[in-house]
Amino acid sequence: MEHENLLRKIYDLSDVELALLLSLLAREHCLISTPTTELPELVEELQLCATRTFGLRPVVVPCHSRTTVEDFNAALLVAASSPHPSGHVRRSPTDSRLKSEQRHRLHVPPLSPLTMTTTAPTELSAASHIANVVIARDLDRAPRLVQIQALELLRTRRIFTRTAIYAVPKQFLFVAVVSSDSKVVEEAGTRRVVAAQRLVPHLNDLLYLGHWHDPEDGFANIEEVEQSEVEEGKEEREVERTAQSFRSGADEGQRHGWSDNNSWDAESAASSESVLKTSYGQTTADAPAPSRSGGFTTEERDSPNDAVPPAIITTAEISTLAHLAEQVRVDVDVLRYQMNIVSFLRMHRAVAGGVTPTATKHFERLARSLAPLHGLDFVTPALVALAARKVYLHRILLTAPEKERSMQWGSDLAAIEAVLEGVGPEEVIEDVLEAVTVPV
């Protein structure tokens, strides 16, 4: 019954929430892309997903060409009035060699994602720690050194400042948010479509899965918050109208001399107004349970010192799904199907690289992780195909027409350009899935 309730909640999640859930389940990290015009909404949606769906504290790290490593490190940290989620921050043995207590921690005031500058950060308080969810917007536009710092953060699960070491919390997720826009470039008289920008190869390969969010699918959490704000506005207006009627009645009573028996005095009107606010605002213990949002209002979301609201998917439930994924069975025919997909991807004429050993490991893990989300204890060919679409979407490197394999044997460049025209990672994956025989 408990597993059925969990599956019911999973079926209600959006595509973005499912991408985050799969990454948290595997303790890996992901890349999410969308058109440039939709990036602000996607970032806001990811923040709401972290707080409302998983009960985790997010931070947005805006990146650009002038972002420094110090800016990146400072933006990862959040000031907390409560202890670190995973306990005290681990310290390196070399910390004891510092000459003074002032050098033990750096301190900066909390940074706003929209107002962060490229100036060097000031000192960070000892209570600061790395946020549970790091949303790196436009990470592909950051300098190479910043991307390498992000790579070290994911590999070692900690960052080094000038005088301190900050370890990531136990529940940690890094989300790279990039634009999916492409551009047309001209090389040697030929025109071809290429990705606008890419992450450094090792960082890109370390990201567990890639997801492209279609703006037509909407942003579920943003829409729910907006609807909640509209309903709250209606309730407040109704309370104000009712209170106004009581005040009007009190004024009318005073004109008729009713105040002597305290029927319509000011205290009665104030008391009635208080009762109405309790009824409409549902502040009593008899108020109904919170909705999918957990009763998390906009004011509560904007206050950094408030407690994290109840999560839809708790940490315990994520651990349960991870345990179930480890017990998933893979038939030998399904495993052969998976390996054939990898081989066909490597041999595809449009692929120049990206089908790495790390990608193969992530491919197998994601196929296993998808099974519990569908109520299965075994991997099906359909789950393998779905995992291939998510694992290799951001990894596949397309070859230039002049470097296509058949050019070594005298193929015509114009013919190759015609064959590769309009071919992207999605087309390559679908071509391979159609070519590989599905086990019965």
TrEMBL record:
EC number: 6.6.1.1
Pathway of action: Porphyrin-containing compound metabolism
Domain of life of the native organism: Eukaryota
Listed Basic and acidic residues bias regions: 92-103, 249-258
Region span, Disordered: 82-103, 226-308
Residue ranges annotated for the ChlI/MoxR AAA lid domain, each copy included: 346-405
Chain intervals with Low complexity compositional bias: 259-274
Polar residues biased stretches: 275-285
One of the Pfam families matching this protein, by short name: AAA_lid_2
Protein's name according to its UniProt entry: magnesium chelatase
Species for this entry: Phialemonium thermophilum
